[in-house]
Amino acid sequence: MELFECLLQIIEPTSLTDKQKSSYTTHFFNYVIHFVVEEYEQRMLQISLEEDHNENTHEDLSQFTLLQRMHEEDMFKLMGSDVLFNSGILLLLDGIEQRVRNV
Asked: Is-contact 24 99, C-beta < 8 A?
């Protein structure tokens, strides 16, 4: 509740409605929580893959051309990284800023 209150206080001076403030703060808060949960799940998956390293654990991505390309470029290694977290935060903040300008 303390973090939620702090986030609301940050956008309180804007011309957004209370409904918008609550909505945007909730989205921001949910992003942070989801990112932490995703990071935990990635660690658990990595542990599982390390334990099963003798088995063929790679999925056939040939039918998913974009995912396959991103996998080959090691894009999935960004999952759970500070770089990905920061880019998501910036995207959310840019979107909120855009909404504030349009009000």
From this structure: yes
Q: How far is CA 15 from the centre of its chain?
A: 27
Alpha-carbon torsion angle 3, 4, 9, 13, nearest 10: 140
Q: What pTM was computed for the model?
A: 0.63
Can you spell out the DSSP letters for 6-69?
Answer: HHHHHHTTSS--HHHHHHHHHHHHHHHHHHHHHHHHHHHHHHHHHHTTTS------TT-HHHHH
33-74 tens-digit pLDDT: 998 898 888 778 777 766 765 555 456 767 888 888 887 888
